[in-house]
Specification:
heterodimer; A: alpha/beta; Peroxisomal Thiolase, Chain A, domain 1; 2 domains; two-stranded antiparallel ribbon; 19% strand; B: mainly beta; OB fold (Dihydrolipoamide Acetyltransferase, E2P); 5-stranded antiparallel beta sheet; binds zinc ion; DNA-binding (chain B); ChsH2_C (chain B)
Chain lengths: 384, 300
């Protein structure tokens, strides 16, 4: 069975959407995805709601609230939440529902309305209350700490990370859904205010309100809906505990395991050469550097040279984050699903001004934590 | 010690959306606003019809009176479902001013308004006893509608009692009373794990043997915290650190203090040797260590 993305939708992301409730925000993305697929809610067999910790928006079980606003009352609904990669974990749950025969057309809607709560304090509640929570700085403290360690060991310099900020913010200029559209220079990034040094303000994406929706179907069902399905040739999501023994945290083992599995399923042997485009979830600039290595786009220690080469910018041989990535918008629970939707748009030629010409094979990466939750997907115009 | 008390307190600015925003704003004007969905009327007003998902077609004012459909008596007062005259779905709210003997299903009720509106749903203090007095059918609100509230302030306060359990309990009893850190050794691979746990998460063998761990170790990774946030313990800038204590295979999250903030970026680095500075507090938590400090004469 081959499963495809047959419709995508995104809200206009913003720092603060005061015109809609959480349910209204999610609905906006769903309406666009149904329109894109030419379907109505009657055609949908099952709904997966993906969102961040309930602490973000002070609503527990928000899926109960959302289904009414979506017109999905009495349909099967589950909520999936798995750190920063929640949106991709939700898509994987939908894929498995279809593979298992429980549903034929599944809607995945992912959202977060981060303007409503206290972000870093909420994220700190992910930590063990006995071990680390009281000293945690969301994920920023330890993300910065392990970036600092990678500087020494892998050469992930502040300049290299600044190049990621420059590239992704420039890409976001061409994405109508991005809400931060402002160019920066390497010098401006390096001189920007430190938050958790070495992480500085311009290494950090915006905090956003936003939602994304994707509709999935298999084989003939997909072809009945659209002439241009975006086939998912591989998808996996792996995790490990925060406090495992013997972890240098220099490379993410869950990422390496997920990439190996998905590359095998999708027939990828030389990722840098084979992929036309990549959408990688970079909650801070330093993450994109580590993903280059974890995904095998370059050898360990090669990320700084790769970003400096310009090959991962638009016009290069493997543009990474033509949408602008998280730097354009970062509604955390939706962010990973946005990466998947953007990849689908790229391989079906629907990415508009940020289209990579002729793209047919896309790499998607998503995840949460510094290293412990990681997902990978391969999206293609060709059914495998 | 059996449990650790913690409190999570979070401030929010919630966005009610247009319909609920109008409903809340109009309560301050002592008017009850519903939303129109075909021939159905929902109050409080809703942006979307739950049975179809379609947006509301408009707003109407309802007479602030109705019929008690169900109720429950609690220690904090009476809660009831009120079917407002002209509405199709009952409204859960406080029921006030009734003698308990007069509380009956089917009783007529009318809005009781707060003396001073504060911008919350309690601007409608509740529904109290009422006669059959003249009302009006749902109508277009005269004089137009108030601008919707765009944000509502909200604070969530959650109190927890976390059980220490055998392993954390043994560790933190020793921390509190003896200033000792106690880990466990894996019966198979002999790794020392801190915090202690029942099974080794590398080889999955049981861990049986307790070992003392000296509060001395090495910085595995560190960053300099400049941002301020809710619940922060030290005033920035300070150093966030992931430490590996000597002899252990696990990480401990804490802070490195006692350094000049101006030199924080260079004074502490991966590989720096540190030791605990114990606090005067005896709480049975990692906060019993104020911070870790660099060890003079050792690598930093
Ligand atoms: Zn072991």
């Amino acid at each position: 069975m081959s499963i495809a993305i047959v419709g995508t939708g995104q809200t206009a992301h913003a720092r603060r959407r005061t015109d809609v409730s959480q349910a209204g925000l999610a609905r906006e993305a769903v309406v666009e995805a149904l329109q894109d697929a030419g379907l109505t809610m009657d055609d949908i067999d099952s709904v997966v709601v993906a969102s961040g910790p309930a602490m973000f928006g002070a609503v527990n079980q928000p899926e109960k609230w959302l289904v009414d606003a979506l017109g999905a009352r009495f349909k099967p609904v589950v909520r999936v939440t798995s750190g920063g990669g929640t949106g991709l974990a939700g898509a994987l749950a939908a894929v498995n529902q279809i593979k298992g025969g429980a549903a034929r057309r599944v809607l995945v809607v992912a959202y977060d309305k981060l303007s409503e709560g206290a972000l870093q304090a909420s994220i700190s509640t992910l930590y063990d209350p006995f071990w680390g929570r009281e000293f945690a700085v969301g994920i920023m403290g330890f993300s910065a700490a392990y970036w600092r360690a990678r500087m020494d060991r892998l050469g992930h310099t502040q300049e290299a990370a600044a190049m990621v900020a420059v590239k992704n913010r420039r890409h976001a200029l061409a994405n109508p859904k991005a809400h931060v559209r402002k160019e920066v220079t390497v010098e401006e990034v390096l001189a920007s205010r430190p938050l958790c040094w070495p992480i500085k303000v311009l290494d950090v994406p915006p905090i956003s309100d936003g939602a994304c929706a994707v509709i999935l179907a298999a084989d003939e069902d997909a072809l009945a809906i659209t002439d241009t399905p975006a086939w998912i040739n591989g998808m996996a999501y792996y995790s490990e505990a925060d406090n495992g023994a013997d972890r240098s945290m220099l490379q993410s083992e869950p990422l390496q395991i997920a990439a190996a599995r998905v590359y095998r399923d999708a027939g990828i042997t030389n990722p840098f050469r084979q992929f036309d485009v990549a959408e990688l979830q970079e909650p801070y600039t330093c993450f994109e550097l580590s993903y280059y290595e974890g995904l095998g786009l370059c050898p360990a220690g090669g990320a700084a040279d790769l970003v400096a080469s310009g090959e991962t910018a638009m016009g290069g041989s493997l543009p990474v984050n033509p949408s602008g990535g998280c730097m354009g918008a970062n509604p955390i629970g939706a962010t990973a699903l946005i990466r998947l939707a953007e990849a689908a748009m790229q391989v079906t030629g629907k990415a508009g001004r940020h289209q990579v010409p002729g793209a047919s094979l896309a790499l998607v990466q998503a995840g949460g934590g510094w290293a412990n939750l990681r997902g990978v997907a391969v999206v293609s115009s060709e059914k495998r | 010690m059996t449990t650790m008390a913690t409190r999570i307190q979070m401030p929010y600015t919630l966005t009610p959306g247009e319909a609920t925003g109008v409903f809340l704003a109009e309560l301050g004007r002592r008017r009850l606003i519903g939303s129109r969905h075909g021939d159905r009327i929902l109050v409080p007003a809703q942006d979307f019809d739950g049975s179809t998902g379609e947006p509301a077609e408009g707003f109407v004012e309802l007479a602030p009176a109705g019929r008690l459909e169900a109720f429950t008596v609690t220690a904090q007062g009476v809660l009831g479902l009120v079917l407002v005259d002209g509405a199709d779905v009952p409204f859960l709210h406080r029921i006030v001013g009734f003698a308990e003997a007069d509380l009956t299903i089917g009783a007529r009720v009318a809005a009781v308004w707060a003396d001073e509106p504060t911008g919350s749903v309690l601007d409608l203090a509740g529904f109290g006893p009422a006669g059959d007095g003249p009302g009006f059918k749902p109508r277009i609100a005269p004089d137009g509608l108030a601008q919707p509230f765009e944000q509502v302030e909200y604070t969530m306060t959650l109190d927890y009692q976390h059980s220490y359990g055998h392993y954390y309990g043994t560790l933190f009893d020793a921390v509190r009373t003896d200033r000792r850190l106690r880990g466990v050794k894996c019966s198979q691979c002999r790794r020392t794990l801190l915090p202690p746990r029942a099974r080794c998460d590398v080889c999955f063998a049981p861990t049986a043997e307790w070992v003392d761990v000296e509060a001395v170790g090495v910085v595995q990774a560190c960053s300099v915290v400049h941002i301020e946030f809710i619940g922060q313990r030290l005033k920035p800038p300070y150093v966030y650190a992931e430490l590996v204590l000597d002899g252990t295979s696990t990480r401990l999250i804490h802070m490195v203090g006692g350094i000049d903030p101006a030199e924080a970026r260079t004074a502490v680095a991966p590989g720096s040797r540190v030791r605990a500075v114990w606090s005067d507090r005896r709480t049975g938590s990692l906060a019993d260590i104020d911070y870790f400090e660099l060890i003079p004469g050792e690598p930093s």
